[in-house]
């Protein structure tokens, strides 16, 4: 069985650190805490879990802090978390099995990172990260903000998920890091440009965000997954302001980078449904259902677009076309995926009043 060092960088995390460590402490053999300038009780809380606490002056560089944390590890493998991450019980059990069975020739283990959720707790945004890496390989972090861990060798993908449960509201920290880099004259990579656009978008600086998304799309490099996601953000903005011509343009542009993604198919279905062009909308929602979601996708993924959303929209479309049986069937298919969704529950009662037996569809 391998042994593991948990490495974390923290600052002012008194409200989340214990919650995080309580879900991880029995999975690892060493806990390394790097404090970057806490002014609350973070370090006092950390002392309840480990003696390995180090100070690192904050220099607007996450990669530097993470590399320092990795340098303090002493076990076979390094695992990292943020203070507002937790490991749910099912994932804890799978993590234990992984630890007991992992082939020591493996250089990196990837896990899902679930970062967005709906009101029912269903995952709405997830992506994959290298999460457990062999210490002897001395893998390094790169990038002051939205950094990444560069790995190579034998990599395996698992279904283990890390769950991000943020408590604090969004701050300007990341945006300011990018602003300061621009002021210094730093040259942005395609990855920098993409994540800078995301920060701008999240801060509702839409004109600047769209300019940077377009700049990113015109760069010759960059992950296709990120380019597809950028097209979606631009499309959502144009849809928000009522410009469906440009919204559709960017949905179709996403097809340049891969076969149609379910989220873009659903967007196109929405545009037609809003015009009561239900047959055209049905085409796109059905294509969303047929599209393939790779379990190994490294880009941002909203599982809802591959599951219940196209079905509930097909329910609406078929009902408006007078095909009530098909409408009922698709509501039940949606209910299979998301039984507590308010709109699905409303439809379930509606169809029951029409005389339909509410049973799970096959």
From TrEMBL:
This is Glycosyltransferase involved in cell wall bisynthesis. InterPro entries: Glyco_trans_2-like, Nucleotide-diphossugar_trans, TPR-like_helical_dom_sf. GO terms for molecular function: transferase activity. Keywords: Transferase. Residues 5-147 form the Glycosyltransferase 2-like domain. CDD domains: Beta4Glucosyltransferase. It comes from Clostridium grantii DSM 8605.
